[in-house]
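request received
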Amino acid sequence: MPLRHLLFYGVIVAVLLFWTTPLLALLGRLDWARVPELCQRAEVQAAIRLSLTTSVVATVIATVIGLPLAWFLAERRETRWRHCELVLDVSMVLPPTVVGLALLMALGRTSWLGQTLLVAGWQLPFTTAAVVVAQIFVAGPFLIKCALGSFTQVSKEMQEAASVMGASSLRVFFTITFPLAWSGIVTGILTCWARALGEFGATLLFAGNFPGKTQTMPLAIYQFMEQDLQAALCLSVLLLGTACLVLVFLREKFSLWRRI
Amino acid sequence: MTYPQELFRRAAKVLINKTRILLCSLLLAGCEGNNDPSQIQVFAASSLIEVGTAWKKDFESQHPSARIIYQFQGSQQLALQIAEGAQPDIFLSAASAPMQRLVEGNVVDEMSVFPLCMNRLLVISSTQLTPIMDDWRELMRPGLKLVIGVNEVPVGQATLHMFKAAGTEFETKALANVVSYEPNVKAVLSRVRLGEADAGVVYQTDVRREDATLIRSHELPVEINPPTTYFGVLLPQAAKREAVQSFLAYVRGEGGQKILINHSFGVIHGHEIPKTEILNLKP
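response:
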């Protein structure tokens, strides 16, 4: 093979290595013999349990509140409502620490909303609910955008044909729009869940760090890595594995590479 | 040649020609930790933020060519970074444990570790708390939202020792009130200042005059609140640099120690300060 071909492939491989090496380093520096013992530790188990429950609950809530919004915005893409998508885009790209601070300012104990909730007996900061709220804020827009994209792609003619033939709005949604947009919605749900699982900055600032209550896996990794690197690596590899599984599933089952 | 390869070849040619100088300087900048001889990189515990800034101002006014660059974080996080290859010139730790870790890992020489200053814990409470907290013992108050440092950070370790020294009843009740373990002392402080937490345990040096409307301080009895020692070290690769050595001499000398005293730290040895000012801590 001529030299210039080799050089070109060399450059491509080097670029790919930039992303692969740190991930491989996680796997390489973990002491695999200690994994069973590490997974038995109470804090590690608490972090895993908490991460799983909060991310699933956050995804479910995001789906319930997000799908109607996505459908609503999809229907009105040619009107002024399309500017509302900006709010979602901004929430997605905002640094997590900014999100945490914003949530604290809006829902903390000293905020107007926070004090109203306090009267009703609810206080958000330092609770597991706060973790869920932070995750919904950060990961929800992923779901909404994916679903919105899918809903937009559903053929308008089919929907119109169905309503001309007498189907109500709701019936059109459940029998035509939703099934056709299904793969995009599932992609959105899984992406949302993966992002919620990895949420760190907003959780630390808004919900705090308490094992069993607000210490999710990323927070546990942050705390453990100074004193107990192996425990942090164990949790990191678990998160890495979960991300890989989700993405492989999405790519094979729903042809993700054609969508993004 | 195929189209992408031709494109790549042309693009590379253009880029390299137009950015020769930029590329050279980028390559040079990527080498070695600290090329600039008058730039001093200091990793310091977050409780040293105010003191460090004052040192910088004072030192740079006396030595116009010097530039001090700080990184303030929890001491244990800084120790981890140094152990994994970060190369500051000086490391200032709020406790012996992070320093010990570097000594054991052969990253620093035990002989070059020196005691820097001393500090004590302080209980703080939010002025928005009702009924207002009067005494440190009220940390046992049921339903109080208490925030302390995480176990790995010096202030957190010291807090847990203090709880233990105060007796089992206090320890259990106070720990039951903890709602969050923060990664550094400034995070604990900001929780209480913002009113999100009712009370916290920080260093006596962390409370500033401006916070008087937001925070109340509650002193702890000396028996359960021994002074904690801060340690500093000059890292081996910076040992020969004149600028770094002069900064260290400043910090350990009269100028630096005076600033420590002004910020309510205790000093270790006052060979350049009158004996009456040696330990700034109440007996």
